[in-house]
Design brief:
With 294 residues, the protein is of the alpha/beta class. The protein is 37% helix and 18% strand. The mean pLDDT is 91.
Length: 294
């Protein structure tokens, strides 16, 4: 296999990417009803670390208010932390100890890049993929703990899963995808949108495919294929989204993510965030790294 040739071909669909963005950002929003809803039940999974506790109540409230599905359970996956458990009880969520999800725990992962320990970052991604065994519904929505919904959304419309596509483009994600599955994805956009709906049967198919190729379990294979020269070399959202696009044609629909990144000093109540930003955005994200230095 000519790796350089594959990389070149993968970088070529610039105009295809531009066309998709034109359609998803400018034309398709005119066709989407903001009052749509779904009767398909889902669970919601939020991996949580301590630094996101200031935002977490807003994230949970936004899910209950704006996700237009019957939300059966909201799982908070976290370490054994009393503050996280208190929010879990207050917001009537279900706490899951992160060490109970997979056969491995964080200290089993050695992912240090240029002196930065990224083991916790990759462990969170593996937890999202591993929560299929904990959720009771066939579909579960994974939401990052710093992302707030500000208008109604559905993620399964009739028989089609709705994927939100973003402007993210990080070549190491696709290198790892190629190492796991033996080819580069053909789709020109990204699925890194801070949330995604997993379907258990399709997720299981992805895991089995990885295991068949590697002759090893899926999580160990992902860890083995991490690039120790790059601080971000795997994306669970990118891997799952591209796998579904390639293997389950006509089972998905695409929308643009319309996400706004805010600094953490801009935290507001949910109604105010919706009033300010929902005309143009679906979600707002208050990332820890996006903090104003005082």
């Amino acid at each position: 296999m000519n790796t350089s040739s594959n990389k070149l071909r993968y970088r070529l669909p610039y105009f295809k990417r531009k066309w998709y963005f034109l359609y998803l950002k400018r034309l398709k929003p005119l066709l989407i009803s903001q009052n749509q809803s779904s009767d398909i039940p889902i669970d919601v999974v939020i991996p949580v670390i301590k630094r996101d506790l200031v935002i977490l109540p807003l994230v949970i409230d936004s899910i209950r208010k704006y996700i237009a599905h019957p939300v059966k359970e909201i799982f908070l996956v976290a370490s054994n932390d009393s503050d996280i458990k208190n929010i879990c009880n207050l917001k009537k969520c279900r706490y899951i100890n992160e060490n109970s999800v997979l056969p491995i725990i964080k200290r089993d992962i050695d992912y240090v890049v240029r002196g930065m320990d990224r083991s916790g970052w990759i462990f969170q991604q593996l937890l999202k993929l591993g929560m299929d065994r904990m959720c009771n519904q066939e579909h579960y929505l994974v939401v990052d703990a710093d992302t707030i919904f500000i208008r109604h959304q559905v993620f399964k419309n009739k028989d089609k899963t709705i994927f939100n596509c973003s402007d993210e483009y990080h070549m190491p994600y696709f290198e790892t995808f190629n190492n796991l599955l033996g080819y580069y994805p053909k789709f020109p956009l990204s699925f890194v949108s801070h949330h995604i709906l997993f379907e258990k049967k399709k997720l299981d198919s992805l895991k089995r495919k990885i295991e068949k190729i590697s002759n090893n379990n899926w999580y160990s294979t992902i860890i083995y294929n991490l690039d120790n020269l790059n601080i971000s070399s795997f994306s669970e959202f990118e891997t799952y989204g591209n796998f579904v696009i390639d293997n389950y044609k006509f089972t998905f629909d695409l929308e643009y993510w319309f996400n706004l990144s805010l600094t953490r000093n801009m935290i507001d109540d949910l109604d105010s965030l919706s009033v300010k930003y929902s005309q143009f955005y679906k979600t707002v994200s208050l990332h820890h790294h996006n903090t104003v230095q005082m």
